[in-house]
Structures are given as structure tokens and as C-alpha cells.
Amino acid sequence: MLSGKTVLVGITGGIAAYKICELIRMYKRANAQVLVVCTPNALNFVTKLTLQNLSKNNVAVDEFEVKDFNPEHISYADRADIMVIAPATANTISKIASGVCDNLLTSIACAFTKPIIIAPAMNCNMWENPVIQENLNKLHCEILEPESGYLACGYEGKGRLCSLDKIFDKTVEILKYKPLNGKKIVITSGGTIEDIDPVRYISNYSSGKMGLALADTAKNFGADVTLITTKDVSRTYNVIKVKSALDMKSTVEKEFDNADCIIMAAAVADYRVKEISSRKMKKTEDDEITLTLVKNPDILKDLCGRKKNSKPLIIGFCAESENLIENAKEKISKKGCDYLIANDISRTDIGFGSDYNEVTILDKNGGMKKLERADKKTIARKIFEEIYG
Q1: Is the pLDDT reported for residue 225 higher than 70?
Q2: 28-34 long-range contacts, Cβ below 8 Å, gap at least 24?
């Protein structure tokens, strides 16, 4: 199943470290080459000799065991097709999220440009700590959330390492399922910013998380990705930062001819200020101020009108606060896109700013598919599976 693939297993200092012995055996039975790197504390829970016998390779722990002038953290990052960190402690997660490289495992993770799976395991109160959740959200990795149950610390709650089958299956899915190999995917994300003056602007609440999840997933699925976003994003694929609707329009149009698929996940402002003041507008004695707004171009509609054949595939997003399906059907007809992803922004548990979403995929032939509430990375994967599966 994994012949020709190299899996780098990172083990941190948690009680669930002993379980990873069986995970290594699962990878070996699937004919994968397995490399193992441990934090020093991991060896308090599982021995180096055991891991070496199971993986049939040396186990790396020390940061500066440099051989042949090839630093180990770069060597391991180059050799492996995927990195699996399990169990991942709160400490290691926070270090990786902050770019701290104080041991070999965190140094490799920082240098790793291919897919990373992180399977956290910790006390339930640590898992629910807002700081840990914030750090998890910073990671552009596949996070396999812990399960609920009785914990080694004596608590009962969410914090147990997820099943080894889940980790193994996700590894196979990422390494073997590449439906976008050879395809150029262009994705927009974030809310555009329309200046009023040098200090004020009109925008919206879009976080850009859905578009970012789509871009990360497309990359994992083998695509050549270009993300056009209004947010500050650091990724190994091509990221172009823009500001206004007009900026986004001109940038997308430059990518149009070479794209196999364009996904318009950005929340583009419908209007912009007619005349932007070059100086800060001063407060006056008047109780009211009037701004004249003019319509922005309908980027999605313009792209669809420019399309002359089956390429590129054009996918739009629509955010609605009422009559979701009715409005979505009307929009896909007017815009002329191949697919339209509709989401309900009136709900507080999904949509703008949330890490979760629930969407309905409409196609130009009248088909519909609802994707039930899930984290945005899962929704992104399911969107691609529906369209390219």
C-alpha cells in the first residue's frame, strides 16, 4: 500500500508514546520505509532499541549528529514523503506553532515542506486551553483530534490519542490519493479592503480560513497551487497578497489562462468608495457624513464570461443569511460558474471566523450535495472529492 514511500514518525514525551510501536509495524507491513525521530523525553516512555528494531533504522534524537556535512534536520526533511507526529504533546505543538527549533524533531518540522500529520494527546484541560487551540489553528498540518475517554492522568475527557487506524488511513489517503496531480489550482480567500482614506476602510468579517483550507488541501492532493489572499499567509506554495476587489480581479485574470481550476472563496466587496481621500478625513461638527459608493466588478461573473471551453473549471462561493438554497440557485444561474458552494453566515457555529463550516455544493446541471458540519479542512477535502473524485 505504501511501497516506495518514506514515513517519518516523530514521537514526543507523552504516555501514548508506547502505542507508536504498533503504528510503526503497520507502516512496515504496508511496505513503507520508516524513519523515527524522538524528543529526549519520548525515550522516558519507549526505548530507542525497541524503535530501532521495529523500524529497521537508526532512531534520531540528538540535534547535531551531522554526517557527511548534511545537517540531520534537513536530511530527514528531504528523505521523507510525510511526517507523522504522534503523540504530539501541548509543548511540542506550541513550539512548532511558534517556530521554536530547540530539538531535532521541532527543527525537522520547521524545515518540512511536505504533508505533516499531527495527532495530539494530552490532559483534557490542556486540550481545551485557548492558547493550545490557538496554536493548533496556526499549524498548516492535518490535525487528527484526540478522542474522549479515561486518561492516564486520572481525568476523563477529550485527550486520548486517536486510533492508530485513523492515523494510518490518513497517511495512506494523503500519500496515495492525488486527484489534482498536474493541475494548476488558483484560489482566492479573505475579505477585500476598500480604502476610504489613509486610515479607514470598508471590509467584511471573512477570515480567509476556508480558502486557506482549500489551498492546503489542493497542495496535499498534488496540485500546483496559487493562493490570492488579503491575509498574511506563509506557505510553501505560491501566495499573492492583494488588497482591494480591483487588485484581486487583475491578479486572478493574470492567472486565468494557465489555470485548470479557479475557486473564488474570497468575500469580495460589492462596492468601493468613489473617491478615496489622500488625507485623513477630519471629524466635523456635522452629525452625518456621506460617502458615495460605486459598484465593484463582479469578478466571478466576468471570469465565467471569459471562459471559452471546459477550462478552467470555475467554482464560486456564496454566503447567505437567509433562503440559502433559493439564493444559491439564482446565483449559479446568473454567474454561469460550474459549481457554487453555498454557506449560511447567519449561524454562529460555522462560516465567518469559525474553524467549522457546513456547505451545499450546487452544480450547473442542477445537482446538489450537502456537506454536514465539519472542520474547514475536512470540508475542503470533501469538496475536492466531490468535484474530482
Answers
A1: yes
A2: 28/54, 28/55, 28/56, 30/1, 30/2, 30/3, 30/168, 30/172, 31/1, 31/2, 31/3, 31/4, 32/2, 32/3, 32/5, 32/6, 32/7, 33/5, 33/6, 33/7, 33/57, 34/6, 34/7, 34/9
